[in-house]
Amino acid sequence: MLAQLLFVQILRAHLAAARRLPAGWLRAVSVLVNHGDGTFAERAVTATGATPIALTAAEFNGDGYPDVAVVESRAGTVSVLPGVGDGTFGPRQSQSIGVSPKAPVAADFDQDGRSDLAVARAPRYLAPGVIAMLHGDGKDWSSKPMDTTLGTHGAPYGLVAADLDGDGTPDLAVAGGSALQAAATLLNDGEGHFSVSTVYENAAGGVAVAVGDVDGDGVPDLVIADHGVATVNVILGRCR
Ligand SMILES: [Ca+2]
Ligand SMILES: [Ca+2]
Ligand SMILES: [Ca+2]
């Protein structure tokens, strides 16, 4: 439903062909409203922090309108833009999340009925990657992020949420994390605290991850795009 209502494109992608950068173009998202026939109209451009590179849409504040969370790479922040129902947003709330955030995922990780955010980030060269979890109470995003260290050096890239162990709470799978790490799974204790469960290694390392029931056994599986080579890995979830 969110995908039908909103197609949000980061203006940064437009800059590939631009010789001179218009002021503010690295600090904005645009919303393209679906006409219902496969065409889109640009509806609104909204300011963000410096260098927005990834986003996710979810209902964060409970008003019934889809909201958007944007990670801002240069600023080291995540901003939540509350949707007002017409393709525009109310004032954004920004929270420092740490150096080099990359991939945001929304789910109710702590099971309080409100959507939270998990963000994969790479603190610094040769340092372990981190998954930062931000508790959302619907309005306030000022709580300190809870970090889970991935345990190996390197950059995590893609991030997805799914109930990987069947206990009813959303877990995480992250692509990358080191040169030899295709992906890792992190299990949720039900209160939004994560621990690394399984690490899947290969020579290329992973750059993106998707989750779905590939073999139809009712257990979520992982599909991982390898880094720098034209291959994907399918990791079948074990029957429970
Ligand atoms: Ca909302
Ligand atoms: Ca929550
Ligand atoms: Ca779970």
Please give a structural write-up:
One of its GO terms (biological process) is integrin-mediated signaling pathway. This is Integrin alpha-V. The chain is mainly β and 240 residues long. The chain has a single domain, classed as YVTN repeat-like/Quinoprotein amine dehydrogenase (Methylamine Dehydrogenase, Chain H). The chain is 2% helix and 49% strand. It contains one helix and 18 strands. The strands form five sheets. A four-stranded antiparallel beta sheet has the order 4-5-6-7, with no helix packed on it. The protein has a four-stranded antiparallel beta sheet with strand order 8-9-10-11, with no helix packed on it. It binds calcium ion (3 copies).
Short account of what is shown:
One of its GO terms (biological process) is integrin-mediated signaling pathway. The protein contains 1 helix and 18 strands. It has one helix at residues 2-5; strands at residues 6-10, 28-34, 40-47, 52-58, 67-72, 77-81, 93-96, 101-107, 116-121, 128-134, 146-153, 156-162, 171-178, 181-188, 194-201, 206-212, 221-226, 232-235.
What does the secondary structure layout of this molecule look like, with pairings?
Layout: H1 2-5, E1 6-10, E2 28-34, E3 40-47, E4 52-58, E5 67-72, E6 77-81, E7 93-96, E8 101-107, E9 116-121, E10 128-134, E11 146-153, E12 156-162, E13 171-178, E14 181-188, E15 194-201, E16 206-212, E17 221-226, E18 232-235
Antiparallel strand pairs: 1-2, 2-3, 4-5, 5-6, 6-7, 8-9, 9-10, 10-11, 12-13, 13-14, 14-15, 16-17, 17-18
Bound molecules: calcium ion (3 copies).
Residues 108-110, 112, 114, 116, 136 line the site of one calcium ion (CA).
